[in-house]
Amino acid sequence: MKRTMTGAGWLAVLAALALSPAIAQSAKQPSASLPGGFIYLRDVDSSIIQDIRYAGANNFVGRKLAGYDAPECVVKKQVADALAKAQADLKAKGLSLKLFDCYRPARASRDMVAWANDVKETPQQKRYHPKLNKRDLFKLGYIAAYSGHSTGAAVDLTLVDLAADNSAAFDPKADYADCTAPADKRAPEGSVDMGTGYDCSDNKAHTGAGSITPQQRMMRQTLVAAMAKQGFVNYAKEWWHFSIGGVATGAFDFPIRARSQ
User: Fold this and answer.
1) What are the E-state strand segments in 130-256?
2) What are phi and psi of 248, to 5 degrees?
3) Cβ 82 vs Cβ 126: under 8 Å
4) Domain housing 200
């Protein structure tokens, strides 16, 4: 959910939100075009699995977020190249990356803010923060009004065991346990067991959490090591969130549209 920046970094983002030509022109873009420096991940490595969660209802808000008009991973070209290198290394181990979120339109972050400020909440939404009030997600660092994802330099992802049965599908009508429960009780994600589900706002989701099994810790370490080798840095409160330095040029708000075939 949350991707933090501090001080001068956020001043640059806010300035970009106000002044970026890419934002001002986004409504006029053809469906297949992207601002300079952005690319569809599939055009670099189609073997990387994608499950863009904010383009549908399988997420903590329970609906599609603003700006996610297609379930496509869009990132800066340098990020896509680095992901492809990590994927090549992981394939040799029988693993694959699976992307949950990539570039995030700034309007989607505002959509998250509106949701967090609304006192209404369903049991399905509560599964993602079982021990917290959703209004506390801001001050605890799980949601931010301005996200590093909007720069195209951050991604949310996990690992998939290519030899495993990953066919279990999410059922929106099912009564799943919360995101901290054992993997066979919580919503299926078609990935290795990292100890919590994706977007779980809980101490157990902190990358270095001590409340997970040795196997879960090993898989987290495998993911962190594969990403670090390509220059990605993990956000300590979320085992799934990584960003890469030197490629962000401000935040953007163009919608994610379908990729041309």
Assistant:
1) 154-161, 232-234, 241-244
2) -75, 135
3) no
4) 7-26+34-244
In a domain, 150, yes or no: yes
pLDDT tens by residue, 31-64: 358 987 999 999 999 999 999 999 999 999 999 9
The verdict on residue 2 lying in a domain is: no
Q: For residue 96, tell me if it sits in a domain.
A: yes
* Upper half-sphere CA count for residue 234 (Cβ side, 13 Å): 21
For helices 214-228 and 77-91, the axis angle rounded to 10 degrees is 130
Judge contact between 156 and 100, C-beta under 8 A: yes
| CA–CA distance, 116 with 110 (Å, rounded to integer) | 10
Tens of pLDDT, residue by residue over 95-112, are: 999 999 999 999 999 999
CA distance 72 to 128: 23
CATH number at residue 136: 3.30.1380.10
**Which portions of the chain are predicted below pLDDT 70?**
1-32, 261
Helical spans, DSSP H, in the chain: 7-19, 21-25, 77-91, 106-117, 123-126, 214-228
The rounded Cα 168 to chain-centroid distance in angstroms is 21
Side chain identity at residue 32, one-letter code: A
Q: In what order do the strands lie in the sheet with 241-244?
A: 49-50, 95-101, 154-161, 241-244, 232-234
Q: What is the CA radius of gyration of the chain?
A: 17
Query: pTM to 2 decimals?
Result: 0.86
Please tell me the total count of domains within the chain: 1
CA dihedral over 205, 209, 211, 213, signed as positive or negative: positive
